[in-house]
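> call design_seq(struct)
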């Protein structure tokens, strides 16, 4: 026997039936995002390293510590994508999407890669469901309307998944001018206290001082109590932007909570930033992050454009999915078709029972009913099989059934056994499946 090989640390396999829940969540995303006119984009899993270095920002944790970089055979420096926004913006620029009617609305679903320390809710390969609204011209009413539309879509998606206890934590990091003002004030406040800061924060004091606000250390949080506040350094435009976003969200009854220290880890955000956390998760409690980005498209070689988007961590979303939604997402399993095989008896009309079972299974599939043909498996194994696949029924075909033109049906829910005319088996099973799906939904 060869040596066993395991999945790489921080990665995992998703198996049935859990994958059915993932597929159902993704189907909900596709349905809801389409309601807002978002189309799906699929970008490559690896890109030139420079895309993320410039797009996500050299000073971000992602770029400085977490990227999977490799050199390909041609000596190019490539990176497994750690997030999807930079790739979407690259594609927007590469395909000249600024010449399409604006805005361009795109969503994606797919794996991202970060070399983080694995723990519960934090993987090295994880999946994000995200959307980006990108436009070179402001919509009527200005850019805050874009932020609002994206948040309404996100809120509807989470609502349709059955979440009722979530809150959007929201803040503004201001436009470029406000940020520069604030950055100067924050550095002036923190520099004399540098001795008391961690090594990470001292480094950030130079590279990206706003990120220090994100610090998890209680000692640093205490120091930050007296720090200048971002809201006091916002210019009138940024203030107005934030006011509009908050007002509109309130009118639409999106539950929001202003979170003045929220700055987010990626460098490209301007104005609105937001996060959704779930009490049902442990330390890694953020299920979604997002915000607006004013300079990113230009930074990546495009026309100046306004962008706003979000990324939901699908793994974490699945961890806290409401139980009723999960139950609904799991479809009833296939019916099991089993042959009673008696080698001593002669096949009826030259058709052995296993052959008849295979034929019946195919007939059911043609009628749109999922079926698993287990051949002449023993009763114990058939029951185990039915249990594992959550089969709604076991159909038995023996010589007697073949002679009489019937099928013996054992419904697994009530364990009742009845004989059904072969000609009636499709309508009978359709009725059974319908009643089961009604039960799950109610
Ligand atoms: P970010 O791209 O860092 O804004 O992350 C957006 C969302 O992706 C987070 O709120 C998490 O739900 C999810 N996420 C980020 N990193 C990981 C990870 N290493 N493992 C699982 N989910 C993650």
């Amino acid at each position: 026997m060869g040596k066993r090989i395991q999945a790489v640390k921080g990665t995992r396999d998703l198996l049935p039936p859990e994958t059915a829940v993932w597929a159902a969540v993704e189907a909900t995303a596709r349905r809801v995002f389409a309601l807002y006119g978002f189309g799906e984009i699929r970008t490559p899993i690896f890109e030139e390293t420079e895309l993320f270095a410039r797009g996500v920002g050299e000073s971000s944790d992602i770029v400085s510590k977490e990227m999977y970089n490799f050199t390909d055979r041609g000596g190019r420096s490539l990176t497994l994508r750690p997030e999807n926004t930079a790739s979407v913006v690259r594609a927007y620029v590469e395909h000249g999407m600024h010449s399409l009617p604006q805005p361009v609305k795109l969503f994606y679903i797919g794996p991202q890669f970060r070399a983080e320390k694995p723990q519960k809710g934090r993987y090295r390969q994880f999946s994000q469901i995200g959307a980006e609204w990108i436009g070179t011209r402001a919509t009527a009413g200005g850019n805050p309307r874009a932020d609002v539309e994206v948040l309404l879509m996100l809120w509807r998606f989470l609502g349709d998944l059955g979440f009722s206890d979530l809150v959007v934590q929201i803040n503004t990091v201001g436009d470029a001018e406000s940020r520069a003002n604030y950055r100067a004030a924050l550095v002036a406040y923190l520099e004399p206290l540098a001795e008391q800061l961690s090594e990470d924060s001292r480094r950030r004091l130079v590279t990206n001082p706003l990120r220090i606000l994100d610090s998890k250390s209680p000692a640093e949080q205490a120091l930050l109590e007296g720090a200048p506040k971002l809201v006091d350094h916002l210019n009138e435009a940024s203030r107005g932007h934030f006011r509009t976003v908050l007002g509109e969200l309130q009118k639409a009854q999106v539950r929001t909570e202003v979170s003045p220290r929220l700055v987010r880890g990626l460098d490209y955000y301007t104005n609105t930033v937001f996060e959704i956390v779930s009490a049902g998760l442990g330390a890694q409690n953020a299920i979604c992050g997002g915000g607006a980005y004013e300079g990113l498209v230009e930074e990546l070689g495009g026309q100046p454009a306004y962008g706003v988007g979000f990324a939901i961590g699908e793994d974490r979303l699945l961890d806290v999915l409401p139980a009723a939604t999960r139950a609904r997402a799991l479809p009833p399993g296939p019916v099991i078709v089993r042959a009673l095989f008696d080698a001593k008896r002669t096949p009826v009309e030259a058709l052995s029972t296993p052959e008849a079972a295979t034929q019946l299974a195919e007939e059911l599939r043609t009628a749109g009913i999922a079926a698993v043909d287990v051949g002449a498996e023993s009763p114990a194994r058939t029951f185990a099989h039915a249990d594992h696949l959550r089969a709604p029924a076991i159909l038995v075909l023996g010589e007697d059934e073949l002679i009489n033109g019937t099928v013996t049906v054992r419904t697994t829910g009530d364990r009742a056994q009845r004989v059904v005319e072969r000609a009636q088996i499709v309508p009978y099973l359709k009725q059974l499946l319908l009643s089961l799906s009604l039960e799950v939904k109610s």
